[in-house]
Amino acid sequence: MTNAAAEFKLGQIGTRPEICAVYGGSRNSGGIVPSREPKNITLFSDHEVGVTFGYHDGWLAEHDELGPVFEYTAAGKKGDQTFTGKFGGNNAAVLHHARDGRPLRLFVAVGTVLGTDTKRHRYVGEFKLDAHHPYVVRQGLDEDKQWRRVIVFRLRPVGTVQHEVEDEIPPALTTLARLVPSNTTEGKLVAPENNTKKESPRAAVPATVAKRREGVLSDAFEAYLKAQGHIVMRFQIRIKGKTGTLLSDLYDVTDHVLYELKGTYRREAVRMALGQLLDYSRYTRTDEHPEPPRRAVVLPALPDEDLRDLLVEHEIGIVHPSGDTFLGVPPSLN
Predict the structure, then answer these.
(1) How far apart are alpha carbons 243 and 169 in whole angstroms?
(2) Using CA atoms, how far apart are residues 205 and 199, in angstroms rounded to an integer?
(3) Which of 8, 94, 180, 275 could be a cystine partner for 123, CB 3.0 to 4.6 Å?
(4) Domain CATH for 73
């Protein structure tokens, strides 16, 4: 019996038993394989399997200021994906890998061993979750072809990794904006309490505080609209020639109004909301409403006069809470 290699090299190919002999974890099926000793989490991606579920793990063509991102779909073949339960535990392990000191090792399937069904996997490299936006939530299909919420992790390379063309997400052939449930958002998906380090308001950075306030504001405004008998959803958008997926804030189906919510009314937040509304509203039309939607921002309070003038100039309404109600909601079309 020979000793297992100390470490896989970039591009090196092995079977699951060979890989687990080096990085630990179960040799049985499953895309996410945590190991306590040695400390690792091995991620197995298979493009052929992903296509059957209507998703494609891989590199985004659109880099941001921090560099490239590899999108990796979480575990769970039926129903909404979560951070709890049978498959959710492994998803939680990925979410908290940095805290637990376990690097993410990514392998991509590249066929089978000759004459067998045993999969072979190519080592892409070591990754970590994006510190500011570790995952997104989208609507996708499960193995029964039923729509459900899907968790998509955003992986950032650690050092040098292998970037092959066949591992890139195919660009969208056409622009498609599809209505999805309003709970298709990470704000509706809570990480397990016993695995989450609680931060005091004093320790939280301003962006985190604003994000939390945005979630509370969004929940309250959605409940307000639904109490008025309105149908509230979101738009999931893929743009022709792009590999990324956009997700709008709330869309009032009943009155054809697109809302962008922010947890602060500071200038940079209002300007971002303005840009997002101008961008998303180009695509957010329906068979019932082929014209562009009306647009409005929802803020914790009215911004200053200059910002109000800016929004009015672009025909964007301003909505804000006042006691148990919301002021500035565009009048009903009926």
Answers:
(1) 6
(2) 10
(3) 8
(4) 2.30.280.10
